[in-house]
Amino acid sequence: MGEALANLKTKAKKMKRDIFVLVEVAKHPTTPIYVKLLAMFVVAYAFSPIDLIPDFIPILGYLDDMILVPLGIILVLKLMPKEVLEECRENVEKSEKVKQKNWIAGTIIILLWIGILFWIVSLFL
């Protein structure tokens, strides 16, 4: 049981690091626009408190986080040239971003979702 938990923690840390690699991918000047957009979408979804399937729904609520986010990460990483991907990984390793809690990004994403919800509500009023 202890080994399974350690393995799960290792995978979670790798996924967190890969999210920051996607941020670097989105900022890289040679990244194609469709990959930048996909990377930004995956990062926003990963940090967003709003999911396609709410977490309070038993089992399914967490499956979207355990399936959609990793699949999005894999897809973006597969679309990137190896040398650019290695450069982005090196940039993440050099920075301390992975170790920090990014409250600013979380706040921006929450405000973005609130704005979208207000816009949708205003369409129906």
TrEMBL record:
All copies of the DUF1232 domain together span: 35-71
Chief place where the protein resides: membrane
Record bears the keyword Transmembrane helix? yes
Q: Which domain of life is it from?
A: Bacteria
Pfam families (alphabetical): DUF1232 (PF06803)
Report the subcellular localization: Endomembrane system
Tell me how this protein sits in the membrane: Multi-pass membrane protein
- Alphabetical UniProt keywords: Membrane, Transmembrane, Transmembrane helix
Looking up InterPro entries in the UniProt record yields:
DUF1232
Q: Membrane spanning segments where?
A: 56-77, 103-124
User: What are the coiled-coil residue ranges?
Assistant: none
From the Swiss-Prot or TrEMBL record, give the protein name: DUF1232 domain-containing protein
Organism of this sequence: Neobacillus kokaensis
